[in-house]
Amino acid sequence: MKDIEIIDLILNQDVLEKYNKYYFKQHPKARKIPIERPMHPSINTWMILPRIQMNQLKQKWKDFIVFWIKDLGLQDKHLESFEMIFTTYMPTKRRVDCDNTVPKFILDGFSESGFIIDDDGKHLHSLTLKTGYDKDNPRTEIKIIVK
Questions:
Q1: DSSP strand E in 42-81: where?
Q2: Which GO terms of type biological process are on file (predicted)?
Q3: Per-residue confidence band for 67, with pLDDT thresholds at 50, 70 and 90
Q4: Fewer CB within 10 A of the end CB, N or C, for the chain?
């Protein structure tokens, strides 16, 4: 029987600040930070964008996640069989629909970086979405159970 490996990733403000420093070195004329919060944009936000803006947002997130995975040294791991649990800790107690936190752009970045082979049903066997509240440390915690 194959051993189970658990990989815990935490996407928080420290990760964003590190990426923003990198981003502004790469794009010295840029004025706006590319990723504002350590949680995936709500599906209600990005699904109504015009196609060009949606693609721009998706690309910003993909670039960010590829940077993060490389920074962690997890690129080219090519995980083949896994489950994921995403827990998004919001900065307010405002009601949040769990299904609006779907991490599409994060998963695309995981694939692009080589961390996972793909986020299709052959490789990603289950995806659990949870929400929580943490005023002082909003973040996204990602638990990957590798089988």
A1: none
A2: DNA recombination; DNA repair
A3: very high
A4: N
- Strand-by-strand arrangement of the 139-146 sheet: 5-11, 139-146, 82-90, 124-133
- DSSP letter, residue 99: G
By CB atoms closer than 10 A (0-12, 13-18, 19+), residue 121 is exposed
User: May I ask the CATH architecture of the domain 5-20+38-146?
Assistant: 2-Layer Sandwich (3.30)
Query: Torsion angle, CA of 135/90/88/70, rounded to 10 degrees?
Result: -70
Report d(CA 127, CA 119) in Å as an integer.
Answer: 10
For 11, 112, 136, the CA distances from 60, given in Å and listed in that order, are 15, 13, 25
